[in-house]
Please model this.
Amino acid sequence: MDAGLAAVIAGAAGAGGAALAAFGTSFGLLKQAKLQGDQAHKMWLRNHQQEAFEAIVQAADLTEETCIEQLGRIAHNRAAEAPAAEAIEVIREHSRTLRACTHRVMILSKGEVRSSALHLCLAGLNMGKASIRMIRNFSAAGVSHSETEISELAEAVSRARTEFLDEAHEALQNT
Model:
């Protein structure tokens, strides 16, 4: 074999090897970029879920506290401080916030977290509706609210909150 031909064959083999190596490197880089993209998305989702989980718990707490506070004000005849219409509007505003936070959790989560978020929202909304009914009854007929009913509703919110926190914790651990 001629030395020139051998050099051409060796050069072609080297170029083919370099092209193959470049292809392998490109494939590896694409795989790494996809993996990094997947990890970045998981981190983004986890951060937004955590924020949404915190927001719904805070909204449920605030709804519960507001209901108890407004009922107490109305029942203790401090109508100048919080007239019935104002008390009802405050409860409705916190209920709207709770619903909005629940929607965010529903968008960002799946499975049991969604179910427990809905359960928490419903417990808070039920407490809000009952509180509004009691405020109206007191304003219209002077009928005082039932401490037992409020305690039961607050306990339902508490149970739902605990259930949600357990599910949210598990979801964040698995993300």
The CA atoms of residues 88 and 132 lie 6 Å apart. The helical segments are 3-75, 84-108, 112-141, 147-174.
